Amino acid sequence: MDLGILAQQIFNGLMLGVIYAMIAVGFSLFFGVLDIIKFSHGDVVTVGAFSGLGAVGLAGGLVVFSPALALAAGLAAAVAMGSLAGILIGRLLVMPLRHAPAVNVLLATLMAGTVLRETIRLGVPNGGNPKPFPALLPSGTIATGSFSVGIDSVMILCAGLSLVFATHLLITRTRLGLSIRAVAQDGEIARLSGIDFQRVVLGTFALGSALAAFAGCMLGLYYREINFSMGVLLGIIGFASAVIGGLGSLLGPIIGGFLFAGVQTLVVVLLPFSSAYKDVVAFAAIIVLIGFFPTGLIAERRSERV
Amino acid sequence: MTKSRLLSLLGGAITLCALIDTPAAAKDTVKIAFIGPLSGGNSAPGLGGRNSATLAVQQRNADPAAKYTYELVTFDDECKPNVGIQVATKAASDNSIVAGVTHYCSAVGIATVDTYARFGLPVVVWGAILPEITYGNDFKEIHRVNGTMINEGKLAAEFLTKQGYKKFVVIHDTTDYGKGQNKYFAEYLKPTGNEVIATFPVSPDQQDFTAELTKIKELKPDLILVGGLTPLGVRLRSQMDRVGVTAQLAGVSGIMTAGFLEGTGAAGEGTVSFHNGAPISKYPQGQAFIDAYAKAGFREDPDAYGPFAYSAASLVIDAIEKVGPDRKKVKAVLNTTKGHKALVGEINFDGHRQNIVNANVYVAQDGKWVYWPDSDYAAGKKKLAKN
Questions:
Q1: Fewer Cβ atoms within 10 A, N terminus or C terminus of chain A?
Q2: Distance from A41 to chain B by nearest Cα, in Å?
Q3: Could you report the per-residue pLDDT of A17-32, keeping only the tens digit for each?
Q4: What ipTM was estimated for this complex?
């Protein structure tokens, strides 16, 4: 294979991987602090994308904004709405049910996701239709030989990687991160040490959901189109990535996200005729890997829980 | 005047008024179903079709010579076969509905033929182009006013070869619709001596095509044929630039929608499409339809298949006018349709109740689908992409 084409496929895999990783990190954060799986996470991605689109439209309608300011408004709205959705789900569904069997939380959050999805479908004008997302990043392409990528793609990739890295710093270097890690290690001891348990848990929900909402906006900028059901498969992929990487660790879901994207890209490169089965192959690979690494690639006992 | 005389006069006047009003009020209401995608990625042609069928009903209701008052009952099939079967069952099991104007999406159209046959509801397909909808069965209930992908695929292979394209890649969705397009295009490309160098079957709701497009970039085809509907076409066109694929893009009528032009913006310029209808202005009644549509104040355009939905609704109404609101009789009349003057030309059903039509070439030019012979591309002012 031509080197440029190979580089391009690697770039495609990285783009997908960073989006999956951002969603997967949320799953890991929630599992870390409360040992729960929040299945509405994929739909929070959609909430972020639609909030971003709404804010960009509103900003453009009220004041003539530069694309950069419109983008800032869109991202701010996405992060705010995503965090709010995370806090509400955490406060109203997860906290009251935290002593109930895990399956109850799983079911409640799954239903919350359906509520979010249907609210978007019914509440947004013509919400059932895909919406074109405006191009707010600089256009133009970087081309070297047969390798060519859009400048906007590079910016999205850098933003995604920076955000994941920033989350890592937040968890490992800040006071809030210390509190989150303390709650993740042992909630009771953390409480005895004076940590506001509920605040830390809700803070974690806000953080994970904000990441997902940001990923939703980036998806809109990348594909130039969003739709109300885009979060369903993304949520499942994000969860699978988190599980295979190692739920409860921060590095695990990132590795899982890139692994999933890598398998998907590899299927198309090696077997183009089976392109339609790339999700099937990727999920099958995850099943096999779970067989070999039941607690994820970064096993919990060897890693510090977030 | 005595009180009793006054009362009898008043009674007489009321009776007279009632008698005068009788002819208008006595018309029976006849229900016709319209089924198409009213939400989702293919709602632009769906809403255009619904509006056009509504216009046919409104015009007939305004005609004093009409024997019945018509009511269009609309159903949203969301372009999903499972939803399509649900709404088809709902329409077909409602005995007050006499006939249907049904389906834009082929995957839904083929899934529902059994339902209509089982319940004995005569329907006229207004958009779905999968040949099997009429040719794959012998259900007397199923009719189609528009052409099939056989016409469109044949024209695509011939036209694109004539334009000098030699190496083709097909990306098609894995529904019957996408698979059919791949089949007929490849079949008619073979006699021209050219070849499809790679075929990529993809899921209809797949979002990311960068891996496929990068593979295509390596293969260096002259042309990419999209075997899918608007959402697939939009995503593909948008991501071609991202990866740097410069091949020409073409697709049959599934992408020939306002949604494709809106979704792709400037990138859509020069995309070629094939459609089994001629431009509306080329039909004798075309201008009258355009004027009436504008006057009716619909929010959406009729889109590419609106004239077929209008013609299908008119055909059904004519049949009901002839034999009354009886499913079996309407079916019998529809079965023998020959030389029926409609908006989209003369409708003649063959042995499989399929109207015979020719396909035409269109190109996206300055944000509109333009009939190829009238375009700047045919005049040589603009050029299609050539690798």
A1: N
A2: 19
A3: 999 999 999 999 999 8
A4: 0.84
